[in-house]
Amino acid sequence: MAMIRLSKLWDRLLWMGFFCAGFYIVFTGGQRFWTGDLSELLTESKTNVQRVCQREFARCLYPGLFLEYEEDSQADSLADWYIQRVLMMHPLSRLKYGAEEPVVMENAATYEMLITGGVHDENEVDENGQEYDMAELAQQENERMIEQKTEEEQKKQQEAEQAKEAEQTEAAAVEATPAGTIYNLEELSDFEYLFGNFYTMDTNTTIAPEDLNAEVLLSKDMSIDKDVEGPQILIYHTHSQEGFVDSVPGDNSTTIVGVGEYLAQLLEEKGYQVMHVTSVFDLVDGKLDRNEAYSKAAEEISRILDENPSIQSVIDLHRDGVKEGTRLVTEVNGKPTARFMFFNGLSRTKKNGAIDYLYNPYIEDNLALTLQLKLMSEQYYPGLARNIYLRSLRYNLHLSQKALLIEAGAQTNTLEEMMNTMEPLSDILDKVFDS
Known about the structure:
13 strands; alpha/beta; 435 residues; 7-stranded mixed β-sheet; rod-shaped
C-alpha cells in the first residue's frame, strides 16, 4: 500500500511540473527569462499565446494538413521540445507515424509470380478483356505440373540409366586383375616341374623334354592381326551333337553349337572378326556316328581356309565326356562356371613313334599356344583351366599354326555353366591373341 501511495504522489508531482513548464512556455515562448519589465512580458506573452493557439487549433481542426509536415529532428527551443513531446502522445500523431511504416520490397518468389502472370483471381481479365475461366486455368496449371513432373522423372531416369551404362562400360573396360600365380621362366624350364604341374598325358603317347622347352614355347608370337580384312578366327565343332544335362533335343542353341555362338559373339565384342561354322560332321543318316567326323571336318574347314586366307586361328570347340557324377565346375565372379581343358595331339605313339600319315607341321606352335593360354588362365582365373591333355593322334590341329581343340565342361554340366565359362575363356584368348 505504501508503494502505491508513493507512486500516485510522484505522478501528481510530475504532472504539476509539466503544468508549470507549460505555463512558463506559453507566457514566455521559452526564448528568454523575464527581465523585470511587466508591460513587455505581457505583450510578448500575448503574442506567443496567439501563435501557439492558432497553430494547435489548426492541428486539431485539420489534422490531415499536418500529416506530411515534418518536425525538425532537433528542437530549437524548450517550447518546440515541449510541443513535440506532447504531440507524440496524441492519437493523431500516432496515426501519422503508423501511416509512415517503411515499404517492404516483394520477395523474389512473389515478384516472379506477379510478372509471369502465374496467379489470377476471379476478377481478372485477359489481354482481350475476357474474364478468366478459373476452372480451365486450374486444369491447365495441373496439366503443366504433371507434365513438368513427368519430364523431371524421365530426366532423372535417363540420368540414372546413363550412370548405370557408364558404370557398366567402365567395369567392362577394367582389365581383370591377376588373382593367381605368375610363373617364372626358371621354374618352367625344369621339364619335370612343367610337365608335372601343367600336363596330363594319355598312356599311348609320349613327349620328350626338348618338345616342352618353355623358353622356346613362350617366346613364340601367338598374336592375331585385327587389321586384316575378313574373318580372323574360325570356330567349328567336329562333334556338333554334344549336349549338356539340360539340353533340349533338336535345339542346337542348347548344345555345344549354341555355346560356340556365344564365344564368337564375345570375341567379336573384343574386336575380332569371327566365322562360326555350324556344319554337322557327326551324323550319318540322322544317327550319331563319329567314326569319320574328323575327316569330314578337315575337308570342309580346309576349303574354308583356302577361301579365307585372313583366318589366323582355328578353334574346334568340344565338351568332354566324363563319368556320371563328375562335376567340372568352379566359381568365377560369383557365377557357376564349367572348367575347360586345352588339348594337344602329338601325332605320335609310345610304341611306334611319329605317325607319318598324321603329319602336323605345327605341333610346336600348337604346344606353344596351349601353354601360353594355360599360364594366362592360372594368372587371371586360377583353377578354371584343367591340365593340358596330350594324346597320340592329330585331331585336325594341322589346319592352322594357331589351331586349338578346347574341351569345355562335360555332359554333366548345365548350359548356364557352359555359357558362363565362355566369358573368361574369351578373355584368356584375347590376352594371348592381342599380346
